Amino acid sequence: MRVISLPRIVLCSCFVAAVASIAHAEPAWVQVRESAIRAKPVYYSPGVATIRYGEQLDRLSTEGSWARVRTKTGEGFVPVSSISRDRIVLSVKDISKVGADSADVVLAGKGFSREVEQSYKKENPSLRFDRVDQVERQARASISEVQSFRTSGGLR
Amino acid sequence: MNSLKFFGCVASCVLLNACANQNLSQLGASVLSSTGYVNQEQARGIFSAGDKLVKSQEELTPEQEYYLGRSVSAQVLDRFPPKLDPTKTKYINTVGQSVVLVSDLPETFGGYHFAVIDSSEINAVSAPGGFVYISSGLLKLLPSEDALAAVLAHEVAHVVKRHGVNAISNSHLFSALTDFSKQAASVAASQVSSPVDLGPMTAVFAGSVSGVTEKLLTKGYDRSQEYDADLYAAMLLQRAGYDPRALLEVLTILKSHAGTASGGWFDTHPAPADRIEELEDDFSFPAETAASPARATRFKKIIG
To answer: Distance of CA B8 to CAs B23, B36, B42, Å?
Structure first.
């Protein structure tokens, strides 16, 4: 009778687990302009990769309000609310490249968008979009600064 | 010349769709095939690409909320300019972020932005996408960082629960957004470089901006939405480590000014006394704890 060694069993188990993980991965798309994949499902955990609007990820599982995801550049956690099950297509020119799968398609930059804002601005030239830009350009604290601020202020 | 005719046909399809309720694919395919350049089946294939692929919208995407919020902000900041003291601004943003990061919407498309607006009114408002404004009049009345966090948490609650967006959400808006995306996709699928008419979508956008701005500055949200925002704010304060009773403290301060002040929160929110009563009924406040000396020191140093 042939005896299978322990290392082989472990190796096979890992292979099966990896295949199962791939099989259960669901496609998801980043729906915020930029975010970070974090090592642990907490905000103050170090970022392992930067992800950008429209980028496709593999969603592996959900832990509370965090999704465990994988990309070519790293694996970790992102807020569930920052990703979408709908396929986000960044350019209408790419619509023809979309294959027939189950994901719904959302066209980025259409509807309420930069181009419609520009058109609205033309119709309302006195509106102070320059002030909105100022507000958006204000210096904001980084995640590590927020964490330091919280610690020094006795916040959890 | 032929390509010009083809271009004209595609543009006609788009315009016709904007004017009538007829299905874009059927209408576009009929007009396109009538040119003789493609047959009916080919034409139907071109125009159905957008119809099949693009999702029928039932809610605004985070990107669309962001652009709506920018234009609502332009309306707010047109009336009340921002006071951009860098130290105060960074402090208020850091307090705001401390609350946001424990919320159910920790990231928006363009990120949260907190700013002081120059107004003696007692007021705070938030626009879709995460733009939060507190008036200099209200800021002056706040006694502590926890009270500041309470005001910001109430506004963040409106963003997380999408109260501003819900004010304008209706089937007409979503069918207009869906049609617009399908037009763009159909034109792209036809591989003809044709500009989509932005006029109808700009009109829908302008109506939505006006609707949200009116809710924020004049009409106010429904009472139930305000109570809901208070309850969620108390929970955010507790999650973040702030004292949730700071919200009761803010409402008590507002109550003491209710007889003499007007405009702002007094016009758009339920009476502070009613809000206190609702909040005390619905939220289990923890036992009183000693105030943080570190938070008191930095608040006094930066806000005064």
So the answer is: 19, 14, 18
Contact with chain B for residue A18, Cβ under 8 A: no
ipTM over 0.90: no
pLDDT digits (tens, 9 = 90+) for B227-284: 999 999 999 999 999 999 999 999 999 999 887 766 777 778 889 999 999 999 999 9
> Which CATH number describes the domain made up of B84-165+221-302?
3.30.2010.10
Q: Which residues 7-36 on chain B approach chain A with CB closer than 8 angstroms?
A: none
Residues of A in contact with B108 (CB under 8 A): 32
Output the domain CATH number for residue A70: 2.30.30.40
Mutate to test the interface with A, among B52, B54, B298 (most CBs of A within 10 A): B54
pLDDT at B15: 37
- Name the residue among B55, B101, B199 with its Cβ closest to that of A43: B101
The pLDDT of residue B6 is 40
| CATH 3.30.2010.10 domain extents, chain B | 84-165+221-302
* Residue spans of alpha helices (H) in chain B: 2-19, 24-33, 40-53, 62-79, 86-100, 136-141, 145-160, 163-166, 171-189, 199-214, 223-240, 245-257, 265-268, 272-282, 293-302
A35/A103 same-domain check:
yes
Name, of A13-17, A87-91, B119-123, B127-131, the range with top average pLDDT.
B127-131
* Binary contact (A31, B131; C-beta < 8 A): no
DSSP secondary structure string, B161-188?
A: TTHHHHTT--HHHHHHHHHHHHHHHHHH
Residues on chain B touching A32 (C-beta within 8 angstroms)? 62, 107-109
CA distance A41 to chain B (A): 12
**pLDDT digit string, tens, across residues A77-112:** 999 999 999 889 887 667 666 665 656 778 888 889
